[in-house]
Design brief:
Aminopeptidase, 3-stranded antiparallel beta sheet, GNAT family N-acetyltransferase, Acyl_CoA_acyltransferase, GCN5-like_dom, 8-stranded mixed beta sheet, globular
Length: 228
């Protein structure tokens, strides 16, 4: 779990920094509330920290780690999946050109539809209270939510674009790009740096993110654990 930059260990940085109030703690192990997020982290891979992580998983269920390397075996846990991710960063100002559709701030009343959209399209871990992390924005067609985007982890000085998804029948209309540009510009207006994480095999998404000004920073490993 080596790394000195906040982005080398984004979950740990977020849960010990800006998003510490969202953290559930078990000894040295931290995670987001299960109704908000799946991600967890520990300070190191000492036997004591690994035992705390195992106890956290036993108490609160499945977690995902996003680290430079996969962890050693965690007591009481089984590995559900292990995937290589790209971490991408937008350093230059993100342009926000006008679009021919309306971009809306989503409200608490939209939460069930947001969860349904994320469940169908699978943009990444998304739960009932995930929208409470940040102000999500979206596009509606005839009153139906067809696309959305928001923020998730906030490592020191950075914020992660997340929850970006579009109904299959409405793809190819520029919704995702427009929403991402607006979220990234919002982050930059706070003097923070926009980041995102994407599976390394998702070349289509990577090409979109590069076209929006995001550049590869480093590879990380996402390891999902469940109780034995």
């Amino acid at each position: 779990m080596a790394g000195t930059h906040p982005l080398d260990r984004p979950v740990w940085s977020a849960l010990t920094g800006a998003q510490a109030p969202l953290a559930i703690r078990q000894g040295a192990a931290l995670r987001y509330d299960p109704q908000i997020g799946l991600f967890a982290a520990i300070p190191d891979i000492s036997p004591a920290s690994l035992a705390d992580l195992g106890a956290l998983v036993a108490a609160h269920g499945e977690v995902a780690l996003v680290e430079p390397t996969a962890p050693p075996p965690v007591p009481g846990c089984a590995v559900v999946s292990e995937a290589l991710c790209w971490q991408m960063v937008a350093q230059a100002p993100v342009a926000v050109p006008p679009v021919a559709f309306e971009v809306l701030d989503l409200a608490p009343a939209d939460a069930p539809e947001m969860l349904a959209l994320a469940t169908l399209t699978k943009p990444g871990p998304f739960f009932a209270r995930t929208p409470q992390i940040s102000q999500f924005i979206g596009v509606k067609v005839n009153g139906v939510l067809v696309a959305m985007a928001g923020e998730r982890m906030r490592p020191d000085g950075h914020s992660e674009l997340s929850g970006v998804c579009t109904l299959p029948d409405h793809r190819g209309k520029g919704y995702a790009a427009a929403l991402m540009r607006r979220i990234a510009a919002r982050i930059q207006a706070r003097s923070e740096t926009p980041i995102l994480h994407v599976y390394a095999h998702n070349t289509g998404a990577i090409a979109l993110y590069q076209s929006l000004g995001f550049a590869f920073r480093r590879e990380l490993v996402m390891t999902t654990l469940r109780p034995n």
